[in-house]
Amino acid sequence: MSHDSRENPYTKGIAEFVSNLQAKDIPSEVSQRIKLLILDSIGCSLYGQKLEWIQILQNTLASVDESKVANIWGTNKYLSLPHSVLVNGTQIQGFELDDVHRQGVLHVGAVVLPGLLGIVETQKSMSGLDFLTAAVAGYEIGPRVGICMGQEHIAQGWHSGATVGVFSSAAGSARALGLDTQQTIHALGIAGTQAAGLMAAQYGAMVKRMHAGRSAQSGLYGALLAKNGFTGIENVLESEYGGYCTTFSRSQDRFDLAQLTAGFGEVWQTMGIALKFYSCVGSNHTTLDAIRIMQQQRPFGPNDIDEIVVRGSQVTMDHVGWKYIPQGLTSAQLNLPYCVATLLLEGECFVDEFTDAMVADPTRMALSEKVRVEHDDAITKQGSKFRHKVHVEVKLKDGAKLNATVESGRGSEHNFASEADIVNKFMLLATKALPKSQAEELCDKILHLEKLADAKAITALLAIR
């Protein structure tokens, strides 16, 4: 394939899947799973609306945007459609509570749902079943791009949830708008050239929270523009010069294009999405679960610890294994030693355990110094499916040593949470913004999404009445 080739079998293959997807094509277990995933992301967003960085974003955009057409979820505020998508996506990813596709390395709901619900609210009414179908279209695509790029993508410093997420957003929005295959190709091509996000944001910057929202917004722009005849890069994923895969991998071969369309209709990446029950980055969850397992075997507390050694993949080492320095809540929630110290001291690692007052807590910081994170090459060689796997050894002051190996955490695709647990998490988070009765009604409608005559019933319940 030459540099000016227009060949695009993979971009076109994605577009064909998205534009042709029908509700009858979706297995019942996928339909049931995505409703739970949607519920979880909405809960995360409703909690996020009150956070400091979200408030700054809301107020800044309101000062330059007099439009009042699309709701900021969990509030009575309205902005233009693209700005509301930016805010709502940021809210979902606002406190490290939302889903993660571990192999594809992205938070899917945060990039898919803001555009879809924004389209429902302002552009096009659709049934709940059509909404569910569009959501599946979006949830299926981003993970495939992430798998294609592999673990090296984030290891090179790209925030993969944002760079990969534009394709999920564009796919879901394109399906919601009813774009045909060629229009969807252009939507993907417009979205792909907007892909961005730097992992250095994890060291304390508020902008890390905004990456998903910006990605959601870029995908929406791609679909809206393509609908009106604007063209994008038709071979955005295949082009040897300046294409997404070659440019972001800085290579001609450190990616696997076949993964982009592998298993359509047979393998559903939606089923590979995990949920979080700790308020921290997904790479930390297996270690926290390992600590819990060992405490069940033999109770121990922070005063009993001599040293904790965590051995994991290179991605785990780079992503969360750095020395903790107080730089704000973002870095606290992403740093593994800090989160281990939090769990040991507080007995939990959820929303109430992360406050500004605790970022520089000397007790947590001292305990975090006892946590050492090491690279285990054997785990890295197992590939992206095992990127969260850890071997954890706890050395106690009395000389005892405890060990646990965890491949995937609570709520993972291998150990998915019950509906009751997901509803409980949703209600805990949603009632931070909505009255309990409204949160319960919203929960019920999402869990019975396929029965809704008009998905606007969802958007109406996201606003403060």
Detailed description of the structure:
With 465 residues, the protein is of the alpha+beta class. The protein has 20 helices and eight strands. Strands 6-5-7-8 form a four-stranded mixed sheet. A hairpin with a 6-residue loop joins β1 (70-71) and β2. The relative contact order is 0.15.
Q: Could you tell me the strand content as a percent range? A: 5-15%
What is the radius of gyration? 21 Å
Q: How many E strands?
A: 8
Order of helices and strands: HHHEEHEHHHHHHHEHEHHHHEHEEHHH
Q: Which residues form runs of ≥5 with pLDDT under 50?
A: none
Structural class: alpha+beta
Number of helices: 20
Biggest β-sheet, characterized?
A: 4 strands, mixed
Question: What would the average pLDDT be, to the nearest integer?
Answer: 96
* Shape call: globular
Strands across the major sheet, in which order? 6-5-7-8
**Helix amount, in percent?**
40-55%
The end-to-end distance, rounded to whole angstroms, is 56 Å
